[in-house]
Amino acid sequence: MSLAAQGIDTGDTAWLLAATALVLLMTPGLALFYGGMVRTKSVLNMLMMSFVSIALVTVVWLAAGYSLAFGDDIGGGLIGGLHHAGMAGLGPDSVHGTVPTLLFATFQLTFAIITAALISGAIADRAKFGAWLVFVPVWALLVYVPVAHWVWGPGGWVLDKLGALDFAGGLPVEITSGASGLALALVLGPRLGFKKDAMRPHNLPMVVLGAGLLWFGWFGFNAGSALGANGLAAAAFLNTLAAGCTGLLGWLFVEQKRDGHPTTLGAASGAVAGLVAITPSCGSVSLLGALVVGLAAGVVCSYAVGWKFRLNYDDSLDVVGVHLVGGVIGTLLIGVFAVREMTGGTEGLLYGGGLAQLGKQLVAVAAVGAYAFLVTYGIGKLIDRVMGFRADEEHEHTGLDLTVHAETAYDHGVLGHGAPVSASAVPSAQKVKTQA
Fold first, then answer.
1. 3-state SS, residue 95
2. Which of 70, 47, 50, 58 is nearest to 151 (CA)?
3. What are the pLDDT digits (tens) for 147-183?
């Protein structure tokens, strides 16, 4: 056994292997969560946008993404180098801390995958699938990878120079996906019938199943970020559970008070909002802080999802209202609730730390949000100009499942209860099925 391999801790490695699998499961969970929230005519397209992200981001990550995000800094805290492109020099004995570097790289890959998939919820029902195939790898390299380096990479400016804290991805995952989702929603414009037609979730049991899988995977997401089977992982695990619970309860409280009805969709959304908010702070706050963070996210996000109707941006599945707003809440509240026992030194405002850390968190949120929005908007506009990003009106009206994938999720769905379908919109194989 090499000297490097002797530095590998088998307990830490076993935990991170499990955590990596848990985080990967979150993307199929997200597919179900999103798939249940759309109408019957676009279920499969929604599932496909998540599943294809697994393949696209993996290829990009192995080719260059990991090296640029976690390689030695070459750009003043902005980006890493390419000396590990194609995973060069990273054999089975290479060690990152107490775990194999290949495992660490795979764990971080699962974060990149779900971040890209999250964006799809903002443009559900109306994006060209081919344009999405182009967007995902370009976005991963130009947006996710640099931000991951800023926050977690060696020499990254957010951590090393600014001193902002983010334990498990409030900045690279939640704020980046939310700001990017807003940018794409503006590029594509609202769905046909936005603010006029009812666009209710078609399958709430699917939504709840997806939310449950997300919650299950989130333990790997947050506790796995300790990179070891240790006390910090245990604290992050408990904080994750607590915040998900108070997020759920906070959302239901608002629904009951505002609408008179606590809903299934609200329960699922509230849990996700609490989990989003605790992601950056699970390794920085006490259990009491986690309870407050989750509750704040559940309450605020339940109102934030309605902003799209007043501000006229069609964020189809509330990526902005939940992930951007929840990520901002969780990242900023580190500056309020951080405790020395968790951070190793940094304290928030309520624990004698003053306003300094809150200011650092605010700068990080503003910088990452602005960068993600502007670059994503540019990518979206370029793709729209070159090949068109918005689906044809007829395809959108008929449903992307049938017109793009030549399939329907339910035999009685689009054709049985949808709008009339023109012959030109139905692929030849589907024509045969319908005639039969």
1. strand
2. 70
3. 999 999 999 999 999 999 999 999 999 999 999 999 9
Closest listed residue to residue 84, CA positions, set 114, 104, 112: 104
Instruction: Specify the range with the lowest mean pLDDT, choosing from 4-13, 185-194, 217-226, 313-322.
Output: 4-13
**Comparing C-alpha atoms, which of 415, 394, 434, 433 is closest to residue 41?**
415
Q: Burial-class residue 341 by CB neighbours within 10 Å (0-12, 13-18, 19+).
A: exposed
Q: Using the predicted structure, report yes or no on whether residue 101 has a pLDDT greater than 50.
A: yes
For residue 264, what are its two tokens?
Answer: 């299934």
Q: What are phi and psi of 375, to 5 degrees?
A: -70, -40
Q: What is the per-residue burial (b if ≥16 Cβ within 10 Å, else e) of 318-336?
A: bbbbbbbbbbbbbbbbbbb
pLDDT band of residue 5 (cuts 50, 70, 90) is low
Q: Which residues on adjacent β-strands are paired with residue 127? A: 390
How far apart (Å, rounded) are the C-alpha atoms in residues 149 and 209? 33
- Choose among 190, 36, 59, 56: nearest CA to 130: 56
For residue 425, name the pLDDT band (cuts at 50, 70, 90).
very low
Helix (H, G, I), strand (E, B) or coil at 390: strand
CB 161 within 8 A of CB 360: no
Place of tokens 């709430």: 204
Using CA atoms, how far residue 21 sits from 110, 117, 219, in Å, is 9, 17, 11
- Do the beta carbons of residue 143 and residue 180 sit within 8 Å? yes
Answer whether 387's CB lies under 8 Å from 407's CB: no
Q: How far apart are the C-alpha atoms of 79 and 72, rounded to whole Å?
A: 8
Token pair for 141: 């390299």
